[in-house]
Amino acid sequence: MKYLMKKIKGEAKMKQINNYSRRDFLKISGMGIVSLGFTKFTHPLQKTNKRPNIVFIMADQWRGDCIGEDGSDWIHTPHLNQLAKEGALFRKAYSSVPSCLPARASLLTGMSPWGHGLLLYAPMAVKYPWTKPQLLRDAGYYTIAVGKMHFHTKNGKKDYGYHKIYLEEGWVKDYEDDYMKYFKNEEPDKNIDGTGLTFTDHRTKAYPYEDRLHPTNWTAQKSIDFIENYKSSDPYFLKISFHRPHPPFDPPKRWLDFYKNRDIPNTVVGEWAEEKYSEFNKIPHEDEPRTQFRGNFGSKLARQSREGYFAGISFIDEQIERVINALKKRGDYDNTLILFTSDHGDMMGDHHLWRKTYAYEPSARVPMILRWPENLQIATSRGQKFNNLVELRDVLPTFLDVAGANKIKEMEGESMLNIVRNKDSNWRSYLDLEHGTCYWRENNWTALTDGSYKYIYFATDGEQQLFDLDSDPNEQNDLSKDNKYSELLLSWRRKMVDHLAKRGKPWVINGDLGIREKAIPHSPNFTRSSK
User: Fold this and answer.
1) Residue 225 CB-half CA count within 13 A
2) Confidence grade of residue 29 (pLDDT, cut at 50, 70, 90)
């Protein structure tokens, strides 16, 4: 951590720390860990005469409300905040199928769930008609990916068109990925799972080894190595995919200490959720693994989980600064588009729910930050916050826009740069969300939102929910049970019928929403070829 020690120099630096108390600052700065802003580098060979590089940074299971610049002053993300100030923050960004694999299918293809064909948590297709890395490769970009991809198979790893991939899959046990090889080479006598936590555990423990061995640090360092050593004159597309803040909650102790006494939000539970889920897995033993997806586990465990989750986020933010400083030192920062997002969020105990696959905001809403280079010559002010409905399907079209490549005609996503350019008059007025059966039988739903209201239809039993996101952003008050909103509920149901009509039975039967007792994992658009 020597690169950070020089940054802690007296009272002047305190002014750069967002929402630190004096006690927070003294506690952390004594350990030499706080990075207080992007280090400014100059380079005599600024590469502004060529197409922009693209750096795509994503995390796994990062909630949309866990960005300080989004109004969450309790989360310490100064470097992502700075990116948002230098670009744009999209406050209504979603993952339409909020679990890892279908979300990544949208990122790969620029398609809606029905379009790419994966409607629940199941393996991605081995092949797609087109993919993000292949399209950018065809456009003249060198394409490289580092971190968690869900690209491994028993027969090796899929590449989907990347020139080079360094994997840290996290959940893999029957396949030795690149991070595992690194750890084994560096510390052959240490247990790579040093905390003993599983990848679905809600408990938190401090990482027992040096930062350099942590997968979050490894993912950043491999990316920095690429930036520092890239020799080609071709532009590059670098995807950096952090496994955390997905469990295990194993951040460095210094970040856990930072959040230990910090004022952070408690879980939010609506009356509807108290009635439905509070009795599941109630009163856990303190040291018992907690991997269940619903239930009231008590305020103590919820607090501990959140401390670990937020600490993991701040650790990633710290690593993002290292990547950005590497771009600056090389002279690439001012000719690089940077996009940050996540595949989905995490309920973190809200409404007595945990993990992902839900239609609710903590699960389905994701962060979305876009920072564009000056040589794109976009005549708009930076630091804006947009409320347009954007989704993971819009990431690939945005990259193609930057690369000067034509979008595939059938591609359903749109370039978010059109919003930045104020050319969004035809932007979508509502967004579709869905997830087939996962965790338990009734968790099988489709949803629509226009950013102000959200309608959810549970296909296994026909239950409905309606939330006013403007007045009730935490979705505590289900309007579907209030007769005052019966007409509004009916109008949203009709919108859902219209949206699903092209799918036919059992989605829509006799002009109304149908019951689907069995999970439907794929649409007819899913590519089933294994060749």
Assistant:
1) 10
2) very low
Interval 461-485 mean pLDDT: 97
283: left (phi over 0), alpha (psi -120 to 50) or beta: left
SS3 524: coil
pLDDT score, position 173: 66
Q: What is the pLDDT of residue 292?
A: 84
How far, in Å, CA of 304 to CA of 176, rounded? 31
Q: What pTM, to 2 d.p., does this model score?
A: 0.89
Residue 150 annotated in active site:
yes
* 450 contact partners, CB below 8 Å, separation of at least 6: 389, 429, 430, 431
Q: ∠ CA(406), CA(410), CA(414), 5° rounding?
A: 60
What CA–CA distance (Å, rounded) separates 350 from 154? 36
Q: Distances from the Cα of 453 to the Cαs of 168, 244, 450, 488, 494, in angstroms?
A: 38, 30, 6, 10, 14
Task: List, in order, residues 6 or more apart from 425 with CB less than 8 Å away.
Answer: none
Residues 411-442: pLDDT tens digits?
Answer: 999 999 999 999 888 999 999 999 999 988 89
Q: What are phi and psi of 368, to 5 degrees?
A: -150, 110
Per-residue pLDDT at 227 exceeds 50: yes
Catalytic residue from among 76, 79, 116, 150: 150
- Residue 341: strand pairing partners: 58, 368
Domains and CATH numbers, the chain: 50-274+301-424 (3.40.720.10), 433-513 (3.30.1120.10)
Distance CA 147, CA 312 (A): 16
Query: What's the burial of 178, exposed, middle or buried (CB within 10 Å: 0-12/13-18/19+)?
Result: middle
CA distance 393 to 390: 8
What is the pLDDT at residue 156? 58
66 is an active site residue: no
Res 241: pLDDT: 98
Task: Give the tokens for residue 126.
Answer: 């081995």
Q: Which of 76, 79, 100, 435 is catalytic?
A: 100
Please state, as a whole number, how many other Cβ atoms lie within 10 Å of the Cβ of residue 529: 7
Between CA 147 and CA 161 the distance in angstroms is 16
**How many Å apart are CA 22 and CA 1, to the nearest integer?**
22
